[in-house]
Fold this protein.
Amino acid sequence: MYDEKKYDEIYDGLLSKEDKENETKAQFIDSLSVSADEREIIRSDTTINSTVVKDDKAFIDRTVNDCYTDDCSEKKSSRGYVKFVYEDGKWMRTYLDKRRCIREEPYTKPPEFDRAISLFFQRWAEKNGKGDDSIANCLDIQYANLTDAEGLFTFDNNSTMNRLTIYVDNSYKYKDDILTASLLSHEINHASTYLEMLAGNADYSCYEIEKFAFATQLFFIGALNTEEQDSLATRIGSLDISNNAPLGIINNLISISANAIRYCGAGMLNCYYQNVDDQIMTMLKSNPYYQQQCAEN
């Protein structure tokens, strides 16, 4: 029906009651028609990867290749969940379930990672409003011996929609929850970007991916409460941060924020965010580690 653009039949016969209460037929048809027209898709080829049924909900993991040519040599691939609810003896499509992770229980991991994840989402929600924290149950975080990084999210087959694999260097076994949460804010942003790119919603460069992660880390630091920020400031002021990578990174990000405020002035948010982005991008492109990493990707 989607390929044939029978959107009115989809609305009448396949959409859940709650979806219909949330959106009129005209709005539904208009949104799908605009999407299809903008992409100029000749056809869509769909592969079903798996199906999960949980009580009155069903989740179909599917890959869609939107073909721009008859032979599909030019295409855009996307992967995500199609979600259904069971009502009146039939499975009906729903667009209202926005969860990107359908796991109902978290992966087993060292408890300090659970505390750090909780701190990240709590402080982020207090500052920016509650977002989709369902991703937390799909985070599989374990210690590893990392030689060139504090943390690592795997943008490869080690990660899937339902298992987002993050490795944290063994040195963090001796760090507190604030430092661990700071690191995980960076890696969780990588995981979120991975899902966004997997869904076909964006195609970011290596440098852009890292820029987003460092910006998230900076904004998380800014969302910490006064006591937590004072704790970081005391350590940065009293310790040799040249030999302390976690504190060194945090200090660099705080300096980037201060530079942006001096350049833009107080309250100039658009200028501030752009200046922060520019500084982070300059930092990345001048760093040999990221030069090599981004040359390989």
